[in-house]
Amino acid sequence: MKFYKFFVASFIILNYFSLGCFKVPSQIPETVSESLSKFDQELFVRATLHQRKGQIESAIVLWEKFLQRNPNSYLARNNLGLLYYANDDITQAIYHFEEGIKLSPTEIQLKANLVRALKVQAVIFEENREYDAAIRNLSRIVQLTAIREHEDIERQIEALEDRIFKQVKRSRSIEEYQRFLEKYPNSPGNSDEARLWIEKKLQAEKN
Q1: Tens digits of per-residue pLDDT, 63-107?
Q2: What is the CA radius of gyration of the chain?
Q3: May I ask the CATH architecture of the domain 24-145?
Q4: What's the CA gap between 104 and 19, in Å, rounded?
Q5: Chain centroid, CA 52 distance in Å
Q6: Cβ neighbours of residue 78 under 8 Å, at least 6 residues apart?
Q7: CATH 1.25.40.10 domain span(s) along the chain
């Protein structure tokens, strides 16, 4: 856990510019809905207060309790995502942001929070050479962002596909080539090269 926290902290510093002045996701402005019961209003206020004071663990407990009683609250999902993000649990942060977007698909801040978390996790995956997982994150980011941002992300995806394909070529295994094509049938340059390699391999086996 200490190593993980150190890594995330290092990532934030080293990638400040590459992620566009990275900063911790901000909260969606919150007001207590009058439609809530008095108990839920008080629970909402307590959870928000603990969160603002940086009391992460207690805030998580309170928001989880609030969410159990109000499962359609995208605000609760967003705040849980922020808390898990602050607690270096990126996987849980992403889960709650995704669930929040299901409840409120047009909420801009939720999307922004999810994109930031996905970028952090993608870098971690890349550092761990989990290139397929990094590509999944980047592909999800493409779905969430404006078209003008897609070119840079798609270049990152292509670079990761190149790394994967280098591993495939080193394996010289027809199964690995076929698996690559199943996952990345349209990888620029790589897919055509993989198809040609398989064709030659099968022809050589026939002869």
Answers
A1: 999 999 999 999 999 999 999 999 999 999 999 999 999 999 999
A2: 22
A3: Alpha Horseshoe (1.25)
A4: 25
A5: 24
A6: 27, 28, 96, 97, 100, 107, 109, 110, 113
A7: 24-145
